[in-house]
Amino acid sequence: MSFDKMDALEVRVRRLVDRVQDMQQANTSLRQELSLAKKELSKRGPAPRGWELEREQIKSRIEKVIGELDSLESADREEVADGKTH
């Protein structure tokens, strides 16, 4: 192997080492940010549970309204089948 090839290989290896170090630093930084975000989220406590409860209540009300609309639609179909109109 010539010295030129060896020098080129050495340069490529240094670049790779630099990139790995940069990625390790970025990884450490992102892990710290994630940890802070998790702590902040845990401080908020019951809010997500409150949203879940509210979501379930809304879902229940929507299902009730849909049920009422379905029964109206069924009644209208029966009237039409019987020849009755409003």
Helix content: over 70%
Low-confidence stretches: none
- Tally of domains: 2
Largest sheet: none
Task: Let me know the number of strands.
Answer: 0
Which secondary-structure class do the elements indicate? Answer: mainly alpha
What best-fitting shape do the alpha-carbon axes yield?
elongated
Using only C-alpha atoms, the radius of gyration works out to: 33 Å
Q: Tell me the number of helical segments per DSSP (H or I, 4 or more residues long).
A: 2
For the termini, the CA-CA separation is 96 Å
Order of helices and strands: HH
The overall pLDDT average reads 86
Percent of residues in beta strands?
A: under 5%
Structure description:
There is one protein chain. By secondary structure, the chain is an all-alpha fold. The chain folds into two domains: 1-44; 45-86. Helix content is 91%, strand content 0%. It contains two helices and no strands. The protein is elongated.
